[in-house]
Give the backbone structure.
Amino acid sequence: MHRRFIRDLLERIRNRNSKIYETIIHGIFLLLGFISVGCVLLITVYLIISGMPAIREIGLFQFLFGKEWASTAAEPKYGILPFILTSVYGTAGAILIGVPIGFFSAVYLSKIAGKRVRSVIEAAVNLLAGIPSVVYGLVGMRVLVPAIREIFNVPDGASLFAAIIVLAIMILPNIIKVSVTALDAVPKEYEDASLALGATPTETFFKVSVPAAKSGIAAAVVLGVGRAIGEAMAVMMVAGNVANMPSLFESVRFLTTAVASEMAYSSPGSLQRDALFSIALILFLFIMMINAALNFFLKRDRVN
């Protein structure tokens, strides 16, 4: 009788401690989630507060669609259309080159490659992900830029094309690693059922596994877009960093490099400094629009 009572008492204490422990862990995770959301909100509010004064003074239309940027001239001009178009073209070009290479590499690693080959390639991909941006820029400046100048017979190889190539290489690790993880998570039963119905392995990979991992692959593309849009140092070193309207073999300046190159010598409280914060706000909104659009299409496909 006493043993049963003691056993029941210990079991109640254990259950109570377990509930308290679960409550504490739940509270910690909830707090961390609120911190993440709070950081995004703080960044958003700060960029809006810092970026709106310049937009109001310059004018939204003139700021977004002006074709000339001369922030240090006697009569300053703050048109960022060249930066916007350069960022759009550069990111689109990097995605057009990097996504197919990364996607097919991920399918090969996840579904076809042997263990030894996969381990070697994954080690190379991880090494590629760990290389600093400045190293990409340095190699591009010393190898890629002269090669473009010689091959295409242009005055200067520092151009939009060089930036596209560098960005395409830089986004490969994100696309490959996340896509491989998504493809590995597809249940083996899906593929076994497809093969049992007479489908070839290639048909199974691309008509069963890839659609099942579509959300993860889309997330990989989003990460690649974010990396391409947000890169500054490597792009600054290979693109020429000149505020021209975008052309494939001319020196150009991206939104990120415009902020990075002028923030150091802009005076606090000046219109130039405020305009740079406005550029950062446009860049932030641009990335948010891309993420929102992709999430919208993914949800619509899931509903359908």
